[in-house]
């Protein structure tokens, strides 16, 4: 039994089979995230529940269809604050990982103060600007003071 009508490659597409692809993805993870640990382990969302999670890098590699154990380790720059980037691309997939060194369970940006329980917010990088090209909104987000620069963390 093949795919039904309306499914990629289904019988009702007059143009023939539709090639499936995965959308571009960007993971943004803070190394000081207590709710969803950057290096993996036990996630505790604060409601008494617990679950095991993969590390941020292993999650990105899994999304790429790669075996994390077979990949070389990420370069360590020793940054205590700031952003580092990794990127993977194939013909079918594209995944990026922004590591927010010292950041909590927040989006790095200079506009909003999150509750303290979410951890520190790095405010010298505009995460909104980083996401905009992935959703086709490049140039529409407004950069605030210190956006795109390194060195600062709010509520650290």
Task: Walk me through this protein's architecture.
The chain is mainly β and 156 residues long. It has 2 helices and 5 strands; from the N terminus they run E-E-E-H-E-E-H. The strands form 2 sheets. The protein has a 3-stranded mixed beta sheet, covered by helices on one side. A two-stranded antiparallel ribbon has the order 2-3. Strand 2 (41-43) and strand 3 (51-53) form a beta hairpin. The longest helix is centred in the middle third of the chain and has 8 residues, at 56-63.
Overview features:
5 strands; two-stranded antiparallel ribbon; disordered C terminus; three-stranded mixed beta sheet; 156 residues; 8% helix
Task: Give a short summary of the structure.
This protein has 156 residues and is mainly beta.
Question: Which secondary structure elements does this structure contain, and how are they paired or packed?
Answer:
Layout: E1 25-30, E2 41-43, E3 51-53, H1 56-63, E4 82-89, E5 94-101, H2 127-131
Parallel strand pairs: 1-5
Antiparallel strand pairs: 2-3, 4-5
